[in-house]
Amino acid sequence: MTEQTEAILERLVGLHPKSIDLEVGRIERLLAELGNPHFSLPPTIHIAGTNGKGSTSAFLRAMAEAAGKKVHVYTSPHLVHFRERIRLAGTLVSDEILIDALRRCEKANDGEPITFFEITTTAAFLLFSEQPADLLILEVGLGGRFDATNVIKDALATVITPIAHDHEGFFGTEISRIAWEKAGIMKKGVPSIWAQQEEEVRAVLETEAAKVGAQPLSIGGQDWMSFEEHGSLIFQGESGLLDLPMPRLGGRHQLFNAGTAIATVRQVLPGITDEQIAKGLTSVDWPARMQRLTSGHLFDQLPKGSELWLDGGHNPHAGLAVASAFADLEEKAPRSLHMVVGMLNTKDPAGYFAPFKGLAKDIITVPIEGNDAALDPVDLAQIAQQAGIPASAAGSVEEAFKRLTLMNMKPAPRILVSGSLYLAGNILKTNGTLPQ
Question: What pLDDT does residue 21 have?
């Protein structure tokens, strides 16, 4: 990312209101100044949920691109550079094009208070409206109902991935309230596809779908299901059964994210063939989600034969999914699991750590460089110890990796770096493994 890009992004942060109220008035004002580009988007699949939004988006993009479609994608947060958030017809936005869009938004905003996400989402809408594509995959930033992305008036489909506790400072601790927020993206007469949900969540979604008239509904566990059988991904829906290759993204939870994407394709993109769905499953790429690193600066420091894994999961639901994935790895190829973890102070570390008890041999907690909201590693280590896992604090990621090297473990260890997408971004940058 160029110095020019960094400078303008820094200026936009300075426009942030003194307090965030969850409403869309600010972005609607700015969009109107720019001619309402959000009314001129390609057919849009709008995705909300607590976990799996990014992976489901990645599966959808891979399947659509396997069918030769040009796909815009909007996701957040980024891992290393801001350009990762905006993909134009298959390619990450260039610095030159991004700077031009941001400058136009800055000029139109004329110094008015606006959140960083709102003004950068406006820039994304501007670019998506100006460059042709067959499809836009649009991921919400926070919640759904009052999210900046929810200013769109229509959609090809809405998708709701698994809903769990997260961002409790905004939405509280009641799962029904969180579900109500996510349900806000559903629209009258627009198909809605849901991953399998807890009973309480599903009841809220059904109530809200009926209120707005969202239809038809395609519900995981009822209208479709996806599971592994004999080394294949089996997708079973109302239109029949598919026997597919296992997804490139690792972990049992990715079977369900892939299933949500397949259900969406079958509901609203019928031109995509079974062969193209299969190609998408095996070509999909989504960094920092059960990503195995096999080279780079940090990897090269580890004992020969070590495994290095990276995952940005940061809430209890994600912890359970990742722990299950590593339990499966342990069953297939046993070796000791050692974790390097950094987390933000808005998360639930105890809930995240709980599924790893008895699975992880130890945890080294680290700071998250450049993030003032990161938990102190000493405090985080104490929480891990209270969860029943031996833990100690390190002053940096580099120090944690040196400790792992000095342990001289045999066989070579399996190492998981996790707890935050911000930490994952730092790891990718330090390791020299930049997202493309």
Answer: 66
User: Topology of 291-431 in CATH?
Assistant: Protein-Tyrosine Phosphatase; Chain A (3.90.190)
Three-class SS of 185-236: CCCCCCCEEECCCCHHHHHHHHHHHHHHCCCCEEEECCCEEEEEECCEEEEE
Q: Cis before residue 413, ω within 30 degrees of 0?
A: no
Q: What's the pLDDT score for residue 20? A: 62
C-alpha 160/C-alpha 147 separation (Å) is 14
> In this predicted structure, what is the pLDDT of residue 409?
83
pLDDT of residue 3: 81
Q: Which residues of the chain have pLDDT under 70?
A: 1, 18-22, 166-172
Task: Pinpoint the residues of the chain covered by CATH 3.90.190.20.
Answer: 291-431
432 token code pair? 């020299």
- Provide the edge-to-edge strand list for the sheet that holds 224-229: 224-229, 232-237, 240-245
- Give the pLDDT of residue 16: 80
Tens digits of residue pLDDT in 72-123? 999 999 999 999 999 999 999 999 999 999 999 999 999 999 999 999 999 9
CATH code of the domain occupying 3-283: 3.40.1190.10
Residues of the chain with CATH 3.40.1190.10: 3-283
